[in-house]
């Protein structure tokens, strides 16, 4: 990593030790990593520290709670957020960061492109498509995914005051960013199978997807 990166990468994690072991060595030098340990029962925190990441514990369960804790701990001018399960290539963050650094966008997001069939289960893909279609129709959202990978200025994100602490966090963020007239940039990002030895809390089951959809619609209502 660079001696003084200007972007903190927040990785919300719960039981992602096997994924972090492969993911963290591939993080580009532009980023300093903050792993938010959201109640892991495995060696997530130990692996993260050993590989040079800063570990922030967050006892309140929930994706939004973990992201909020990471953003609060961040100090760099820019902040990136990405799942820590190995499903995304951190090298693809560089182009997203450049969109914001250059002033072309206030929020740069990734649009998932599965590398093969079965990576993105039908129930999770359908739920995402329905929410995005609703947002595009109702508020003019200019992107096509629920921002699973994103980069923006840290101060701008803090000022946006995203309050959801569950899986509705990215939906609330997108709604508020549109209302604040943020400029968006969207790039395709490869969507890989998550690391062996880990399990998705969202797409790993129909029940998990249903719970996430409930959180999405609660924010939208």
Q: Structural class of the helix and strand makeup?
A: alpha/beta
Question: Count the strands?
Answer: 7
Cα separation of the termini: 42 Å
**Parts with pLDDT < 50 across at least 5 consecutive residues:** none
Q: Estimate the helix proportion, in percent.
A: 25-40%
CATH fold field value:
Spore Coat Polysaccharide Biosynthesis Protein SpsA, Chain A
What's the helix count?
Answer: 8
Please name the defining characteristics of this protein.
8 helices, alpha/beta, 19% strand, 221 residues, 7-stranded mixed beta sheet, Spore Coat Polysaccharide Biosynthesis Protein SpsA, Chain A
Q: What can you see in these coordinates?
A:
- Helices cover 38% and strands 19% of the residues.
- The protein has one domain (7-220): Spore Coat Polysaccharide Biosynthesis Protein SpsA, Chain A (Alpha-Beta Complex).
- The chain has helices spanning 17-23, 44-50, 63-73, 93-101, 122-139, 154-160, 169-179, 206-220, and strands at 7-13, 31-37, 54-57, 78-81, 107-114, 150-153, 184-191.
- The chain is α/β, with parallel strands linked by helices and 221 residues long.
- It has a seven-stranded mixed β-sheet, sandwiched between helices.
- The chain contains eight helices and seven strands.
